Each structure stands twice: as structure tokens, then as C-alpha cells.
Amino acid sequence: MKTRGFIDGEYQDGELRGMTLLAGMRGAGKTTEMDRLLQTCSGGVLFFDSLSKHAGVLKGYVVVHQPGELKAYLTRNHKKRFRILYQPRTGDFDAHFQAVCDIVKAFGWMIFGIDELDKCCGPRFGPSNMPRGLYELVNYGRHAIVSMLATARNPSRVSYDFVNECSYMRLFHMQNRYLKYFEQFIGTENVARMRSLQKFQYLLWRDGEEHAQICGGRRL
Ligand SMILES: Nc1ncnc2c1ncn2[C@@H]1O[C@H](COP(=O)(O)OP(=O)(O)OP(=O)(O)O)[C@@H](O)[C@H]1O
Ligand SMILES: [Mg+2]
């Protein structure tokens, strides 16, 4: 899966296509794997850095702090190759995230990565557990030519609708209580295989395939 473009109804770039969730406990390697996946992309990438702490880790990204700056940068780089790191350092976190989602939807043609998705979701947004802008991307992002990936430590805090729309999951070592949560999506047998994951390994699950694959592992 190396071609970039809107192919068979979904935007794909590098190893990414549609929606992907990377879940697992702290330090399991989620953000590092997200960085690797984004490096496989040849087109536009926007990384929403919920904790505003990855500027030193992600190489070659332009750091942006405000929606206006983001809009101006995307206007100049629309459909081209770009690497943007959005850090909501000051002001209202939810307002930043909402504005970024609206801009992503308006411009399209990009991979939208969200680090620590648990921070962007929650009951404060009503029954969908996620802000309107994200809801629209989850449900209609395909039409906006946007594919997404997100990391989360605590899957029970992430909107169910988000997880349910994911056709790929990369599941790292996690606490037993969270394994139970994933059973409804990936099945009992695949959950059982997660118990044998070594440090930095993850289970790669693809919708429609019965047997998920164990991938990753120590490499740095
Ligand atoms: N495959 C790997 N091999 C060796 N070291 C790794 C690997 N993946 C990640 N690391 C290292 O492990 C540490 C934790 O990785 P990372 O920040 O990606 O974890 P995380 O799951 O995102 O953690 P958190 O939930 O705290 O955000 C980092 O120092 C990173 O460089
Ligand atoms: Mg992380």
C-alpha cells in the first residue's frame, strides 16, 4: 500500500488508509509508531500534539500554534507535501481542536494524526463523546479526502464511534481491563494473542481479516 491518492473511495498515503487507532499503555511506543507511519507518507501530514511536547521528537515539522497560522500555511501548501505540528499551547484546548478539525475538513487531502485522543474526547461533548468537528471527520472525512490516525492510552475514554470506524488498529501491551474492551472489535482469539506481546510489539488488526499479526518490537 504505497500509492498516494483517493483510491477506491478512501484517501491513502504510505501505510495509511481510512482510520487507524494506536492504543496501549504509557511508554508502549504508540507515538513512535505514529511518527514512523507518518514518515511513510509522501503527501500532507498534520499532527495534533495534544500535550505540546513532541517538537523535539518529530523531525522536519513546521510548528504552528494558532488556527490562523494553520490556515495560511495550508493555503500555500494545499495538496503538496507538508509536515505540520499543531501545538495548542495557550488558550482553550477544546476550541483549538475544534478549529483544527474544521480546517482539516475544509482543506482535505491530508493525513490527520491526533496524539492522545483521550484528551480530545469525553462526555462534555454529549452522546457522541467527541466534538462536532471530529464527529464530522469520523463520519464524512472520506468525502473530505482525509484519513486519520490517533493514539490513546485509555480506550474507554475515546469515543466508541471513533473506534468503531477504524479499519486498522495497532494494539500495544495494555492493562487487562482494556483487553476486554477491544474484544468486541477484534474477537476473543486476537485478544488472547495480545497477552504475549513483548515491549514495543503490537497486534496489527485489519477489519475483515480473521487473524491479526504481531508486528514491531525494539528497534531504536
Ligand atoms: N520500537 C522501539 N524500540 C526502542 N525504543 C522505542 C521503540 N518505540 C518507542 N521507543 C522509546 O520508548 C519511549 C516511549 O515511546 P513513546 O513515547 O512512543 O510511547 P507512548 O506509547 O507514546 O507513550 P505515552 O503513552 O506516554 O505517550 C521513547 O523514549 C521511545 O523512543
Ligand atoms: Mg505518546
Provide a descriptive summary of the structure in words.
There is one protein chain. By secondary structure, this protein is α/β, with parallel strands linked by helices. The model has no long low-confidence stretch (mean pLDDT 96). It has a single domain (5-173), classed as Rossmann fold (3-Layer(aba) Sandwich). Helix 4 links the parallel strand 8 and strand 9 (146-152). The protein has helices spanning 30-39, 67-77, 93-107, 132-140, 160-165, 176-186, 188-194, and strands spanning 5-7, 10-13, 16-17, 19-23, 45-49, 62-64, 83-86, 110-115, 146-152, 168-172, 201-206, 213-216. The protein starts with a strand and ends with a strand. The strands form two sheets. Strands 6-7-5-8-9-4-10-11-12 form a nine-stranded mixed sheet, sandwiched between helices. Strands 1-2-3 form a three-stranded antiparallel sheet, with no helix packed on it. Magnesium ion (MG) binds at residues 30-31, 115, 151.
Summarize the main sheet: 9 strands, mixed
Provide the structure class. alpha/beta
Q: Write down the domain tally.
A: 1
Mean pLDDT: 96
How many strands appear in the DSSP assignment? 12
Tell me the name of the CATH class.
Answer: Alpha Beta
CATH architecture: 3-Layer(aba) Sandwich
Radius of gyration: 16 Å
Percent range of helical residues: 25-40%
CATH superfamily caption: P-loop containing nucleotide triphosphate hydrolases
Side by side, the strands of the main sheet go 6-7-5-8-9-4-10-11-12
What's the end-to-end separation, in Å? Answer: 24 Å
Strand content: 15-25%
CATH topology: Rossmann fold
Poorly predicted tracts of residues? none
Q: How many helical elements?
A: 7
Gross morphology is globular
